[in-house]
Structures are given as structure tokens and as C-alpha cells.
Amino acid sequence: MFSQIGQLIFENEAVAKTSDFTMGLEIEMQRVDEQGNFSQEPYPAGIGDEKTNPWITNDYLETMSETVTPSAAHAIDAMHYLYRINNALRSALAPGELLWPLSMPPRMPKDKTKLHFAKMGPKKEAYLAEWTKRHGYSQGTPCGAHINLSLDSHVVKLVLENFPEQFKDEREVRNYLYQVLAQGFVRYRWLLTYLFGASPIAEANYFEKGQEPEHPLRSIRQSKYGFGTKFTGDYTSLDKYITRIEQGVKQGILTSDYEFHGPVRFKGNRNLKDLPKKGIEYLELRMLDLDPSTSVGVRTGTLRFIRLLASYFIMHPALHPSDVNGILENADKINEEVAEEVPTEPSKYQSTAWAIMKSLERYANQIQLGPEYSEMLEDLEDRVANPLTTPSAKLMNYVKDGSLTEYALKRAKRYQEAALESINPFRGFEGGKIYTADELRKALARCELLGHE
Fold it and tell me: What's the domain range around 104?
């Protein structure tokens, strides 16, 4: 059953627009040497300056490279951008350097103070130092794939025109739809952890002695053992979201609003207090582990699934405001349970996962999505039915002496060789040029065309 807004969208034949999100990708990967240690090399000179290049930057550690794509209207375009930028980074690495393909970091030195923070300027580096005092080095090192989603303006305008008594302007429509999306993704985060979790074990020295889990997990990164501050957000509304984070700062739980690393973040104005002025401009989804089966850390099929989920959330009834916090608090507990399950065994929530997948399949058929979506859903339904086909369970086949180093290095070397053999790598960062998003899209498109000549 569609919501009132969903029925409006359906009757106006605009359902396709609910999955036509503008999408941007941010992929973190650690630079390592050929033995699987953190690299001792500086930020690659061939891609400009780490403080000014917004498309290949560092996050937390100097070795944690983050590739950022300009926004794209289609998943396949976002992937093309990502491949080009990822190859540009690989082409600039020092001889013998590689990109570690796993979310959990390579083996860490026993003396973690030897790790160097990213060079982000005095203010940010002071923040990183304070954060590390609170949480330790290990919890800052897991890497992931972040997805930024922005609504199609056609949907926003359609809702505003037909519900003028509920929304006074486009900003209010966007805020409402984004909060509905955020609630949906947090509510079903556990399903994404099951389907895409790919961090079953940690390498040497990540855990202090005696603090490691008793068995491999579906996703260490998505569990209580993973990244950073365990501070829950309030997704009931934008105002409550801001108030909750500000309270965390006042109480000393967060060192600053920047430290809120929830599974979903409302994004727009850089200053949290100013976010209500223009409203939410996009969502940042932060719940995906790196997929080591691809050189860029995320697959097109995964992006399609995210788009399908987002469309489904918009079209179906939203949570009642009074129920949001209770349901999402329970969802966090479920996610913790799923993340800490043995990856080769069926999930406690297998039947619920199956029911959700079948609902998504019916919805995809109802709105007549293409065969690529049917194939993607078929693959993911197989993961629900057979846990041995999930990414984390597959990784367990390659564990040797409690480590995935051999597997990770083999993958990393293969991906590096393929990048260096690229016929027409993108070299637009070499001169230190700072691209706007439009300029970079055009430059990447020109490179793409040259590669097909």
C-alpha cells in the first residue's frame, strides 16, 4: 500500500523519478606496502595537494586515501567517475605501494603512536588528536563506502504542488522526504549489514589483548567493535536531529558536531546550526563495508539496491513521529546482533530479511524496473537463503593463520597492475588543478571518450 505521497507519484507516472537520485560516492582505502604494512610514503605528489584536492583526500590517517566523485544522475555514471579517479590515485602511488581492499585495516604497529594523522591543518589535526585520546587509534582506521543521495527536483515540485497545506516551500518538502529516507535506512541498516558486511576478522594489533571477539563476525566495522563514537542520532525531524547532536557536544560525549558519525547524516550547509536555512540537500549513507571483490570498493548492483530501497521508502507510509526513536533504537540493537553473528551461519532475522526482499521484488515488478534490477535482487535473495554466499562468509575461505593479509595483497596487486595498464588514465590532477564538480565531470568525460577511440 502506497502512502498519500506515493499514490500521488504513482498516479502521475513519476515513480521512476523516485529512484533517479543524484548520487555521489566517497571511498576510503588505506595505502600499504607490498608486505601489508601501512605505507611510509607521503601523499602522492602526482595528484596535487592533499589539503586542496577535494576529490582525492585523506581521512584520519595520512595513509587513508579517500576518493570522492562529483555527483552523477545515474549509478553507472557515478561508477565511471569512481573508476577514473581511483585509477588516477593508483597511477600516482609510489613504486611498491598498493591500496588495501578491505574495510578493516592492515596489521597495525604495536606502538600505534607511530601512525601519522592526515595533514588537514592545525584545527582538524587537533580534533583528530583529541578524538584518538578518547577512542584509540584502532577505531579510526576502518574504511568504508559512503553514498550521497540527492532527491530529483521533479518529485519535490510534484509534492509541493499537490500538498500546499502541508508544505509551504520546496525546502520543507525536501526536509520531510529526507527524514523519511533516513528513517528507512536506519531502520533496515541491519539488512545492509547482512547483505554487504565484509569485515569478519581484524588483523594483528587492531584489538588490545583480551578485547577481541570470540569468533569471526559478519561485520566488525558495523558492530560495537568498529568505527568511532557510539552516539545515536534523532531522525524524527531536522530540528531534533540538530538538537540531539548539540546536546551530545554540550554533554562532552562528542568533541564537536563533526564527530557525529551516525549511519546516516543530513548534509547541506557546512555549519550544523545553519542547516535549517537552506534545508537538507542530500543524505550521506555510511553503513557499507568495502567490497574487496572490486577494485573500487563498491559494485553497481549495490548502488542499484540502495536506489531501490530509497524509492520504496518514499512510496510507502512513513513512521509515525512518536514511534521513530523507539523503532530506530530497536533497529540499532538488531543491527548489532546481525553484525556480530557468525558469517557462515543463517541470521536470526533470516525470515524477516526474506520477507523484505520479497516486498522489494514485488515493488520492482509493480513499477516495471529493468532486468538488471531483477538480476540484482535474485543475487541478494540467494545471500539471504544461503549465508555462505555473503561477502563475509566468502572471505572466511581465505583466512590463513587468523589473517586475510595474503588474500588482500593478492587482490591489491591485481587491481594495481590493472590500473597501471590502463590505456588512457586520467592525469588531470597532476598540475595541482582544483576542479569544480562541473569541470571534473567534463574532464572525466573527455578522458572516457579518448579511452574508447
Answer: 4-451
Concatenate the DSSP letters of all residues of 38-95 into one string: BP-SPSPGGG--TTT-SSEEEESEEEEEEEEPPPBSSHHHHHHHHHHHHHHHHHHSPT
Long-range contacts of 2-6 (CB under 8 A, 24+ apart): 2/315, 2/316, 2/317, 3/315, 3/316, 3/317, 3/318, 4/163, 5/159, 5/163, 5/314, 5/315, 6/314, 6/315, 6/316, 6/317
What residues form DSSP beta bridges with 99?
31
User: Residue 279 in 3-state DSSP?
Assistant: coil
HSE-up of residue 80 (Cα within 13 Å, Cβ side):
18
Rounded to whole angstroms, the Cα distance separating 242 from 248 reads 10
b/e burial code for range 221-237 (CB count within 10 A of at least 16 → b): bbbebbbebebbbbbbe
Residue showing cell 555514471 = 77
- C-alpha 355/C-alpha 438 separation (Å) is 42
Residue with cell 524477516: 352
In angstroms, rounded to a whole number, what is the distance separating the alpha carbons of residues 368 and 439?
35
The amino acid present at 119, given as its one-letter code, is: K
* Rounded-to-integer distance, Cα 38 and Cα 204, Å: 12
Look at the chain and report how many structural domains it folds into: 1
Query: Residue with C-alpha cell 597501471?
Result: 420
Per-residue confidence (pLDDT) for residue 422, from 0 to 100: 83
Residue spans of the chain under pLDDT 50: 450, 452-453
Report the CATH number that the domain containing residue 349 is assigned in CATH.
3.30.590.20
Please state at what angle helix 189-196 crosses helix 324-339, rounded to 10 degrees.
20
Strand, coil or helix: what is 99?
Answer: strand
pLDDT digits (tens, 9 = 90+) for 122-163: 888 888 888 888 888 898 999 999 999 999 888 999 999 999
